[in-house]
Known about the structure:
Blueprint: E1 2-8, E2 15-25, E3 28-39, H1 43-52, H2 60-82, E4 89-100, E5 105-109, H3 112-119, E6 122-125, H4 129-133, H5 143-150, E7 157-162, E8 165-171, E9 178-184, H6 187-196, H7 208-211, H8 217-224, H9 227-230, H10 239-242, H11 244-249, H12 251-255, H13 259-281, E10 287-291, H14 298-307, E11 312-315, H15 326-340, H16 347-350, E12 360-362, H17 366-378
Parallel strand pairs: 1-4, 4-6, 7-10, 10-11
Antiparallel strand pairs: 1-2, 2-3, 4-5, 6-12, 7-8, 8-9
Helix pairs in contact: 1-2, 2-3, 6-13, 8-13, 13-14
Amino acid sequence: MIAVGLMSGTSLDGIDAALVRILPAGPTYDLELLEFRTVAYDSSIAAALRCILPPNAGTVAALAGLHSAIGRAFGGAARAVLGSHRIDYVASHGQSVYHDGAQSITLQIGDAFVIREAIGASVCYDFRSADCAVGGHGAPLVPYVDRLLLQSSSEERIALNIGGIANFTHLPTDGNLSACDTGPGNMLIDAFVRERTGGAMTFDRDGRLAAHGNVDKEVLAAMLADPYFAKPAPKSAGREQFGSQFLAEYELQLGALTTEDGAATLAALTACSIADAVRSVSKPGAHIIVSGGGVHNRELLRRLEERLSGYRVEPSTAMGISVDGKEALAFAVLGYETLRGRTANLTGATGASRAVPLGAIAPFELAGLLAKVERECAG
């Protein structure tokens, strides 16, 4: 089966598109990443998104227009990785525009039927709503795939993803998995750098700003006192907790810092909140496998490794999994589970009352696709 997994996260840096060869292999899958790229949002779409995302309040008309426009953008991203391959299905996470996990409310946009018409294949989409319908946060969902691909009987592992929001999956050898969003990943650093440079820079490339700055310990301590960090799992976060309004709470303190010191302080916030969460579920010696855009922020990783002394920290490429493509690849797997009708939420991760099948399907020659799934699973 050839699939495209599509993902756009809270950083709004673009659409991750992964072309994946996927085949059932006993309890797990054999996966081959054939092509991956991040396709940047058109500047008009990115600007329109920021206008409707918290703390801003958009209109229904703006939301509807973006639903269609992002569908076209996702369809274009899928076409960009296809090459000469004939695709069997698309799995689209969509773009989150609202998330309140504690209230089991979440919304992702990006019209799946527009994607279907652009690609000529069935589209699996709306993965989070089913979990919310049974009382879950609708997030995180990638832990299901982490368990399939990374569970080990010989070593304790933690699959850490640092995107706009940071999250991890704890994979002890006994299989008693846990997972949660730890708090901000790149989101606050990106917003701070964008504001300070008037949009000339949209992120701290390679962590260069933070590497030349000093952490303001008082500001860091104040930020770490945010109630989110003390909440027990399951918990999930988004722009509602760690958007620009979070920075606005510390406007006076951050305003007194240089750009370098502000970037260093926010990188330390991400590193500290991740390290505290990791230490709450594991002991030194655990293997931490890191993916997501935060891997490219060298100063952030340096601070994280410093705070997790005694742990083995390395990028997911060491396990044969693309650092940037992991989440898009994971949704390709979740799409296959949708087509199989298998449950794919982990109640220990999302807080749902029961495990349920995830996702809806925008069908295109669906009978033939489901017959192929049946043949592959039987083989």
